[in-house]
């Protein structure tokens, strides 16, 4: 890597003391490369296991008799091919390949391009780069690229979208000479016309020869395609207005451009065209000004990412496989505090790798944002995100995080993870909300996937486990579920109260507790949140390992489902939520587990005895509700208590005892902690 500081022979990588920093960096580097290799192998396996008719679908108009590719007529006859005529000319030699051979060549060729792209991007990081960053950047970049939705989409569909991005990066960072680099960028623009915006970036940053070479390269490639395929070229540039009319559903969510967003919002005709042109011009103006500023600041990779995000927004059609530029915006530094520095890269990585439905709930009010989430990220990177200049004091030295002084533990080896130090300041709110939402979405997906049908025999196994649990309770004389369930069903006020409690407070109370802790007790918020996260993960393991039918789904025992009503057990999809959630995720009960977590946190944190008592009433009412409505066994609540106890236990073992944070006194700051370097920080009144 360039610009790596020389450390002397005694500190060279691999020659330092055993177990020293250099050895650890080397070990981490090996692990990261292994992770990248595993991800690549997994992606190859996923693509090659896909049936032939379901992969390379954007090339399906070429598939002729006996699976041999051929080009017959125009590329654009069936609206399947959305690339430029030059892209078709590049792909035309594949017409002599068999589909099976093409699948292997396309998959491994695309992964090869991804590896080269990651290596070039790692070398293009703004200088100076810390040695640890330079050594670890390449495998991290390759792993993120492999995980990204654009690369996965490209492998599945059979697209050339990685090639323009790679040509631009090669032209700017790997090829010597402005003209040679400009020609490569021009070839990329011939594959994706909005890449011509990079000619403007070159021009305004003083690389006039490179800008001219870009225009010349684009013109030459386009002219070559026109000479070879005049009908297709005329169709693309005039009939479809440079690709604007291509694709069967330009208003579909896959089109993450301003044009697609306006169509989804209901605009059409001349009004939509005028809005698109006006908004596109504004984005180009603001985005290119920002890109030029960051390029002159020495952050050329960030400038390239911003220009690419502008190209994403203003292209008439920007399909999912063309959105890699958004991922490259991760190199920008945002936030003056160390705790805020992770917000932007985490958000970009999540947007680039996860479906939009995992980022925002499936509600009508969130639909305009959810359907345009990647476009919004691109617009934000291009126009509004306040990336720090390299001359800013906090660019390399952000305001450090405040850490609490270690609290002595009962056992010598606690905490087991010494670097997991207790932070006394609030985490970034947007990052916290984003991670909570994504974490809960992942929890929902895993919980839904952990059905009896995919684990161990489906409904029959879950009912068998239900009989086991019922037998154990009978042995210990705690099988009170049926008695209490029938008492609830025949007592009107009890049924209404417990139904309401069961359906309303499961999420409301934990979120309220987290909100109060975040606002008033940030150190306790981190402690409580970690315990809740560990408990939830352990519960997911329980759902996978032991699918269990709740009492209401055991027809021979005569329970009454007071919440969902009578179930028709003769139908495979009985029950109100059978198709939406895992009906057999009963052990352990997170209804009770989360309520117990709330009660314990309130009992520990609350300053008044009546507040502690009120908090402990919540798990009591919850266990009554889950048993009275027929949704859980008594032992499910015991399991919920066990995972919550284990969650607090893991938090204690890994990071040590909870920080005792004194209450704030007017005129003072509440805590005397340590700075990032471990030095004491003065918290005395000013």
What does this protein structure show overall?
The protein has 686 residues and is mostly helical. The chain folds into two domains: 21-396, no CATH class; 430-655. Helix content is 59%, strand content 0%. It is globular. Mean pLDDT is 80; it is low at 1-18, 452-457, 574-580 and 662-686.
- Overall pLDDT: 80
Query: How many beta strands in the DSSP annotation?
Result: 0
The 3D shape can be described as globular
Uncertain segments are: 1-18, 452-457, 574-580, 662-686
Radius of gyration: 29 Å
- N- to C-terminal distance: 47 Å
Largest sheet: none
Sequence of secondary-structure elements? HHHHHHHHHHHHHHHHHHHHHHHHHHHH
Helix content: 55-70%
Which structural class fits the helix and strand makeup? mainly alpha
Number of DSSP helical runs: 28
The number of domains is 2
Share of residues in strands: under 5%
